[in-house]
Design brief:
single chain, mainly alpha, Alpha-lytic protease prodomain-like, 2 domains, 3 strands, elongated
């Protein structure tokens, strides 16, 4: 399963490598700052693809003596690095575009630049759909970030293509750097949104309210077999969710019955959270009274 994921992650590396080389060559030949900006953006996408490829391979390793909770947070670290790189690229693009606004220059063979932008957009759109589908299947934040980078490259490439057509038709050369600034602002805005998803798990933030409600709904399907549930704690590391809670049961129940109940609850939860690690702390009903007294 992870071998397929690794191959798909590497596919984005290959596609980005091709697009980066093509954009840089055409950008330097035509003198378009918008195309060169796109080449820089795609270069960061390539770096992001490499980070995602490596992080997927590392995070899929099983827990070991040095890392008893596995390697899942490698994906969150890579996702955070990727978004920081995008933000830095946006700042650099704006700087270069302002310089070009002050001293606008004509663009050679704009149709060649347009053709490259369209080809790159089509290729990255196809690859982004493949990567996103696999990211959702394995719940990989690194691959999800990578798919997002590829998709933003599609939008920005098409934006540059449209802008270059306008430059050709109107000879308003200031449009070239102006489009670059607009794209840079868009890229930075999306990077901030993605950071909000990649970074919190590094601080062991809990799962979303919707996800926790989903977990409780699953547990409550068995409410006739236990007395009370409390202290639900959740967190995420890469593609893995960690779920733990206390379950109060009747003292008269045998260990076999309680163990079977826990197995069924865990199995039900993993149908919705495939890679979840679940820990259930079982308490006899006498402890429930003590817990209620402490709360009051």
């Amino acid at each position: 399963m992870m071998k397929k994921t690794s191959h798909i992650a590497f596919l984005s590396v290959l596609s980005n490598s091709f697009v980066v080389i093509l954009k840089f060559i055409v950008g330097l030949f035509t003198g378009s700052i918008a195309v060169i900006s796109e080449a820089i953006h795609s270069s960061l996408d390539l770096l992001a693809s490499l980070i995602a490829f490596v992080s997927v391979r590392i995070s899929s390793k099983p827990a070991d003596k040095e890392h008893p909770y596995g390697h899942g947070k490698v994906e969150n670290i890579s996702g955070t690095i990727e978004t920081l790189l995008i933000f830095v690229a946006g700042v650099w693009i704006i700087y270069e575009c302002i310089h070009k606004l002050i001293s606008p220059e004509p663009i050679k063979l704009p149709f060649l630049a347009v053709a490259v932008m369209v080809v790159g957009a089509i290729l990255n759109f196809v690859v982004s759909r493949i990567v996103k589908k696999e990211a959702e299947r394995v719940r990989s934040i690194a691959m999800k970030s990578n798919a997002f980078h590829l998709l933003t490259d599609v939008y920005t490439s098409l934006g540059v293509a449209g802008g270059l057509l306008l430059v050709y038709l109107t000879e308003w050369y200031f449009l070239d750097p102006l489009i670059g600034i607009i794209l840079a602002i868009y890229i930075m805005f999306e990077a901030v949104k993605l950071m909000k998803e990649a970074f919190p798990p590094l601080l062991d933030a809990k799962l979303s309210k919707t996800e926790e409600e989903q977990i409780m709904q699953i547990i409550e399907q068995y409410k006739e077999e236990y007395l009370e549930i409390h202290d639900l704690k959740t967190r995420r590391a890469g593609a893995t969710e960690y779920i733990e809670f206390h379950m109060v049961v009747r003292s008269s129940e045998t260990i076999d019955i309680i163990h079977d109940l826990c197995d069924r609850i865990e199995k039900q939860i993993t149908q919705s959270f495939e890679q979840a690690h679940i820990s259930i702390h079982v308490e006899p009903e006498q402890e429930l009274k003590g817990y209620i007294n402490m709360q009051s």
